[in-house]
Structures are given as structure tokens and as C-alpha cells.
């Protein structure tokens, strides 16, 4: 039995590494195909009607695909595992490919969703079929799905520790002592494959183990600053759009997905016209802000911030297939960068890219309720104790303050979720 589990874990890691690499490269190819080259350079040359039509048609197709197979939608990993154990969900090979298609369409046409959600789902589906192939006991389904998810996250972020921690915080904490070894094997193998083809997040200004004590005084001013933007994001998502979704469309639930498809397509088209960098997953934004010391006008950076907050929440309600990890990180990176720039205006010695790195991890950790993953991510991407310590302090305090006024869930619940739950 032990030999079969180890072999299954290795197979999951290998398949996840290659498939996730293909998935990421497919997104890049499709994006360049739709926008006739690098979108940041070509969007200005494309007709306005095309920029509105492309995301609108894309999200209509995505919603049509989802209507044919509800398993394509974004589910939390523990929900997937529980549904499989209770025979309420069967993950078919067809579902795997349709999920990839729906996600690629969402991401390559400008919707502000991330790659980690589909990646974790793809990894879970791979693990599910390997579990069946190796005829492993049903009691191991959660562990095997955790292996698949952590392998896929390790591959897409090119970060093995982040993949392991992500799975532990989502689903595998109760199995930690017994099964952590299998998570490590799958994640490391998938990472070893993907690093040959994909680029990880990195931080070239790392000070390593050196701690700048003066730097930490600014953190106590940063905490209320980033908390304000967490409140703005949660208010928009949980109060405004949630009200529109559940109340205004209460008597028009039949047309809910069509209405939000039009809203989503129009919003993405407008964002592409105003500032292309505010669209897409946000990985380029995070990488740039963390690794460039060039001054960016505050008016531009606040415009991108506002558009990303609006675009990310609307993308969720439009049923774009993708995760929140990268989009939320990009919002946090922008918030952190603006804080550093504001300090520099008052001649306070600091570096904006440091706060971009901290903000990216903290915002993600709070909104997705993944504080441990936030700390590990900050360590693995920066290798800088200043960032790691600041992230650890900030994420706990900001999450506590935010929880006083908002009930934060790891996955957003929309009208479509409630309809699906009723069917089940």
C-alpha cells in the first residue's frame, strides 16, 4: 500500500508539472493571439469595439461551458474532496479540459482572475483520476487531492513551499503529521519540472537576513493604511455587488449570468481602454512593483488600483473561471507601493518596492484567509527577513480588524452558487 501511495504521488507530481506548464504557456499564447501581440503594446492600436466585444463574447462562452458542467466552476478544495467522498461530484477527463478552456478564455481576454484556482482544480482532478487508477482506499481521497493541489500550485508559482502551505491551510491540516511527506514529494517534483519553463515571482532587492529596525516603525503606520483598502475591497464585494446579485436580480435569476456577462465584458473592455496594466491576472504588476525603483506617478498608480479593485470583483460575479490569489496580490502590491510613495513625499526614508512585497502578501493572506501561506510566500519570493517579519505582524492584525466588520470567506458566494446548491 505504501509503495502504491508513493508511486501515485510521484505520478501526480510529474503530470501536474507538465500539464500546469502547458496551461500557463497556453494562456500566454492565447493572449498574444487575441490581442495580436503583447497586449500592453497592441491594445492602443486595436479598435474600441473589439476591446469590448472580445471579453463579452469570451465570458458568454465561459458561462455556457459552466452551464453544461458545474464542476468547471471554482470550488474550494475541501468542497471538491467532500463532494467526491459523498458521491455528489465526479471529475471527468472532459471536465478537466473544459476547465482549462474556460480558464484560458477568462484570463487571456483580460478578466482579473488568477491562475492558482484553476491550477489547484486541475491538480485535484489529476489526483482524483490517479487515485482511481491506483485503486487507493476512499479514505485517502482528501490526501491525494491535497497532493494534486499542492503540486499544481507549486508548479504555477514555481514555488514548492507555497504549494505545500496552500494545500495545508486549505484542506490537509488534519492530515499534516501523517501525510505531509506526500505533499512535499508531489510539490517538489512539479516545481522541478515547471521551473525549466516558467518564471517565478522574485525580489531582486532582498537584504537576506539583515534586519533594518527603523523600517519596522513604518509598519505600524502601514497597518491602518492597508486595512482601509481591505475594507474598501470587502465593502464593494460583499455589500454592493452582493446586494446587486442577491437582491436586485432576485426576480431575474434566470437571466443573472447573461446580465453579469454583459456587465463583466463592458467593465473589462473599459479597463483595457483606460489602462491595460489594470487588466489580466496581475502577475506582471506584482513583479514590476517589487523589482523596479522607477518612480510611477501616484495618479497613475491609484487609477490602476481603483480599476483592479472594480475589475476583480466584477470578474468574480461574471463567473470568470480563475482564482483570486494573483489578482488580490496585485491589489496589495499597489496599495503597498502607494504607501511607500506617500512616505517619500514627506521625506521619510523608505523604499516603495518593500511595501509592495509586504502589501501583496498581506492583502492575499487577509482576503483569502491564508496567513501562513502569506508568510511562506513572502519568504520564498523575497528571502528578506524585513519583508517576512512585517508580513507576519501585519497579516494577523489586519485580518483581526477586518473580521470585526466582515465575515471573510475563502471563496465568494454568488447567486450562481446558491442556485447550484439548491439543485444538489
In words, what does this structure look like?
By secondary structure, this protein is mostly helical. It has 2 domains: 193 residues, Clc chloride channel, CATH 1.10.3080.10; 211 residues, Clc chloride channel, CATH 1.10.3080.10. The protein has 18 helices and no strands. It is globular and about 65 Å long. The C terminus is likely disordered.
CATH-scheme architecture of the largest domain: Orthogonal Bundle
Name the shape in a single word. Answer: globular
Strands, count: 0
Describe the biggest sheet? none
| Mean pLDDT over all positions | 82
Q: What is Rg?
A: 21 Å
**Domain module tally:** 2
CATH topology of the largest domain: Clc chloride channel
The percentage helix is: over 70%
The class by helix and strand makeup works out as mainly alpha
Count of alpha/pi helices? 18
Topology order in helix (H) and strand (E) letters? HHHHHHHHHHHHHHHHHH
Spatial separation of the terminal alpha carbons: 34 Å
% residues in beta strands: under 5%
Low-confidence stretches: 415-424
CATH class of the largest domain: Mainly Alpha
Give the full name of the CATH homologous superfamily of the largest domain: Clc chloride channel
